[in-house]
């Protein structure tokens, strides 16, 4: 029996890669090392993650103006607008230079205990950890195995 034909180009986008840890709601994206080199590269790199974060959190909290602790600003025009902005990109670059003269390797960048990870509370459910380098997002549920921890760059 021959294999089925490939799906048409207009088919749904591919499913994200397998979760690399319990509670992952958006996968870590490789390529941040190249993306951070240009504003347009960064915008493209963070587009999917920032849209997912904005949609997920607005549904979970009924708000869309969260604080960005890396920048010290409020995302008053939404997470997608802020996280893909030139000003946020510059802050990420500066913070990475302060931490180290080189960017971390992917296996380190994905660690959700690093200072570039911020946690956002969802009342009664837990919190979402957002990785400002990779875009990876993890739901740390109240009382679940993903919960607890120390705020990691909060």
Q: Please outline the major beta sheet.
A: 4 strands, antiparallel
How confident is the prediction overall: mean pLDDT? 83
Walk across the major sheet and give the strand order: 1-6-5-4
Shape: globular
Number of helices: 5
Q: Span from first to last CA?
A: 54 Å
Radius of gyration: 16 Å
Would you report the number of β strands? Answer: 6
Q: Describe it for me?
A:
This protein has 154 residues and is of the alpha+beta class. 32% of the residues lie in helices and 16% in strands. Strand 5 (126-131) and strand 6 form a beta hairpin. The longest helix is centred in the N-terminal third of the chain and has 23 residues, at 39-61. The radius of gyration is 16 Å and the shape is globular.
What's this model, at a glance?
With 154 residues, this protein is of the alpha+beta class.
List keywords for this structure.
alpha+beta; four-stranded antiparallel beta sheet; 16% strand; globular
SSE layout:
Layout: E1 24-26, H1 32-35, H2 39-61, E2 67-68, E3 73-74, H3 79-83, H4 86-99, H5 106-109, E4 117-122, E5 126-131, E6 137-141
Antiparallel strand pairs: 1-6, 2-3, 4-5, 5-6
